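REVIEWER CHECKLIST
Item 1: Sequence provided? yes
Item 2: Single chain? yes
Item 3: Sequence as submitted:
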Amino acid sequence: MAENTKHLKIIFSTDVHGNYFPYDFRHEHWGKGSLQRVHAFVANAVQENPGNTLLIDGGDMLQGEPTAYYFNNHSTNSRHRVAEICNYIGYDVAVIGNHDIEMGKRVFDKFVKECNYPILGANAIDTATGEPYFQPYEIFYRQGLKIAVVGFITPAIPHWIPKKTWEGMRFEDIKESAEKWVKIIQEEEHPDYIVGLMHSGMNEGIVTPEYKENATRETAESVEGFDLILYGHDHSSNIEEVVTKSGHTVPCVNPGCYAYSVAVVDVSFQIDDNGDVSGHTTQCALNYIGTLHNQHAISFKKHFSYPFNEVKRFATQKIGKFLNRVDVTEAYFGSSAYIDLIQSLQLKISSADLSFTAPLFFNAAIEAGDIKVSNLFDLYRFEDHLYTLVLTGQEIKNYLEMSYAGWTQQMQSPEDSMLLISPMKSNPERMGFKNFIFNFDSAAGICYEVDVRKPEGEKIHIISKENGEPFLMEELYTVAMTAYRANGGGELLTKGAGLSKEEIESRITSVSEHDIRHYLMEYIRECGTINPKPKNHWRFIPEDWVAQAREREYKILFGE
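Item 4: Structure as written out by the authors:
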């Protein structure tokens, strides 16, 4: 029998994180990627492939840059600007991301309602009804073909995000939810092609008896029925074919973050004489759009010139002055002005005895001089609220032992490496940290030493409280930390301090009304002029070993 062919083109973005315009509002220069460039690419593709294109997003659209912060928190009386932008581009479907949830129901409910396309999340369950809080899947028709897209979000949200932001929801394991929904779609919809849309990385991440943070590989291998999986969350560009237990091959595609690239999937369907699909082939590619510019980009820029200028005015507001430069790179080698400024603020907000925080950027600095709103995004990366918990002295020590064990090696001689570094996954020719820097918590409120010659459990020697009073292992102390940490993120409270999730919740004494960046803004405005300096309340020892290691490893990580 003779066959003919029908074609489907899928264009996929993910983890845009506020990069809507090709402009770096933090550093005031034109930038790469952005939804503007997505529009430029998509508009061309639709013109070339009328009637057979699907535009899909993988979540984490609402957080990350001054744009997102402004549209979520300051420009709130009109339609959500990000929904307007996504509608203009012509997205067909998206999945909700954990950082979208992090913005709270006020923001993500409004966004979902105002998008002209469905936002999926089959495994985010409304506890009142037992049904998905978001739409579980959507059916599309292209050239007579029936395409199903089913969406899932990482279930690790309770470990990162305050309960009040997602109250009324629970999050099911992705693999288990996928087994359920693929079966429903197959039995009720009989599609020609099933796309899994996952805000969940390929593998690794948090693993508990209840779920896996990054479950794309496991789901692709275990759940029969997917023809394609589009995934995000881990920010790693990747095209990989995963083979199921039955031998079926499933392409898994991630274009990476910030809309620097999009994934383009071309599917060719073989149609028999009866008009039925007899088979299909799928080809995947990653297209760099970082510098794409055409008439569509120009029309986008013109259409959204007003909100662009709104954000620019907001980001360039002067709020104070720094007398000294602050540089996050200093934080990896001891007490630093960068981290200690945040610690001081957290202690001020919370009135706690101690404060924990970590670097949120690999390499960032704020120069001495006028401080603008935009600078705060180089000082504090996320819209995190501040929690205060009660911990014993011993739990604090155990917490810090785990933090520094993920940060430093056990040195045997001055020639050994001090920091745990390895080739970067994104660029093996460059060196970076072996573990996530946002789990490198140091403490304020106490004076202590970290002995890099000692193993985990013996590294930390707490000398006293910063005011000179004794620090006692059996004493109870109030400790300020981010919402991410207070909800179990990084496992420093669980595996480190040894608390169960239930115990953590019982230790919480207060939660800040606003996010930490909001308080930073207020604090700098109130002070006017700030002279940031390291408090020098903690140090790595022995100092001669550390000095040698610092000279070597700073160059390895950051250059001369």
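Item 5: Key structural point noted by reviewer: The radius of gyration is 25 Å.
Item 6: Recommendation: ____
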